[in-house]
Here is the input.
Amino acid sequence: MQGEHANTLMTLREREREIAELQSKVVLLERQPAKVDTVTVTKPEIRTVVIENSEHIENLQREIKTQQESILKLREQLVTECIFWLVYWC
Here is the structure.
């Protein structure tokens, strides 16, 4: 059971690290100057880097939210395991 607890804690730390990395990417994208590029797709279409960055930022923010929800579940699992061990040893 302690190994399971250690694995859960490691997963929690990994998720927290991933969130920090994603948040730093969001900050970098938000600080980039607005540029305009022409992108040719199947049919001619003009998109700005600002729009593409906005989409990327939204994707990263969704990923951050998913990771934060995962961390919350892991923390709840850790609390449950700790309570089990407290009850078991007392």
In short: Helices lie at 2-31, 49-89. The two ends are 16 Å apart (CA to CA).
